[in-house]
Specification:
The chain is of the alpha/beta class. It is 37% helix and 13% strand. The longest helix has 29 residues, at 114-142.
Length: 275
């Protein structure tokens, strides 16, 4: 008889618990529901929209998993990051952390005040750092490895007028992802970023929009993205099948990042200079 193939490393030690920050709506909600569909108990966090978080928890609960909810204010650091510890205790550990909570601006640099700059950096970069550090401590102590997945943006890689603090934070988070990947590899913890393009969500003012109807001629696939398309990549990175993937950035952008020289040759006006 043919010899049975050996299992992949850690294939029998599947993740059981996850925390998804900013999972009250949009991409975070889609990620939490997708992970719940894979059988993971999922900690849900929100900043202001508790009702949205409860709806996410209810949808996750329909998959037969636990989904405790906590408020997480990433402008109150490092104190608020204790929520990661609370959820770890409630869930019995944290095998997967998804840093999805974020904010942004639509102001040119010369119109930007320092407090706004610092608020965006605190939420989008400092918050992700503190949450990753807290979660990694639990993963290391448990000794089962783990996954940290940071939701960045195409602006991890390319700039946008009117989004200086957002672009700086996301580029910084991309760099932090790589350093964490190096430092945590000895504990079998992988760290990756997922970089969405324009996704039809409340954050982009397209809460109920059908991406198939949101035409974007400048994007090779010709439309916006669906939050579930981002969630599918995150869900893959959380599985044993992605155990040899670390320190990478995964664009989910319909080909947007490929369009630099192509798009610049087609622009016929200077409207791009305004946020």
């Amino acid at each position: 008889m043919p010899r049975e193939a050996a299992p992949l490393p850690h294939e029998t030690d599947r993740p059981r618990t996850a925390v998804v920050t900013g999972s009250d709506s949009g991409i975070g909600k889609a990620i939490a529901v997708a992970l719940a569909g894979g059988g993971l108990d999922v900690g849900i966090t929100y900043h202001e929209d508790r009702d949205g978080a409860e709806r996410t928890a209810a949808e996750a609960g329909e998959q037969g998993v636990r989904a405790p909810v906590r408020r997480l204010d990433l402008s109150d650091l490092p104190t608020s990051a204790a929520v990661i510890d609370e959820l770890a205790e409630d869930l019995g550990g944290v095998d997967v952390l998804v840093n999805c909570a974020g904010t942004g601006t639509a102001q040119r640099v010369m119109d930007l005040d320092f407090d706004t700059w610092r608020h965006v950096l605190a939420v989008d970069l400092d918050g992700a750092f503190v949450c990753a550090q807290r979660a990694a401590r639990h993963m290391i102590k448990a000794g089962r490895g783990g996954r940290i997945i940071n939701i960045t943006s195409v602006h991890e890689h390319q700039p946008k007028v009117g989004a200086a603090p957002y672009c700086a934070a996301k580029a910084g988070l991309g760099g932090l992802t790589k350093v964490l990947a190096l430092e945590l590899a000895e504990h079998d913890i992988t760290v990756n970023s997922v970089a969405p393009g324009e996704i039809s969500t409340p954050m982009t003012g397209q809460e109920d929009a059908d991406p198939r109807q949101q035409l974007r001629p400048g994007v090779p696939l010709g439309r916006t993205g669906d939050a579930r398309e981002v969630a599918a990549v995150v869900a893959f990175l959380a599985t044993p099948a992605a155990g040899y993937v670390t320190g990478a950035s995964w664009p989910v952008d319909g080909g947007m990042l490929l369009m630099g020289p192509q798009a610049s040759a087609e622009l016929a006006h200077h409207n791009w200079r305004s946020p």
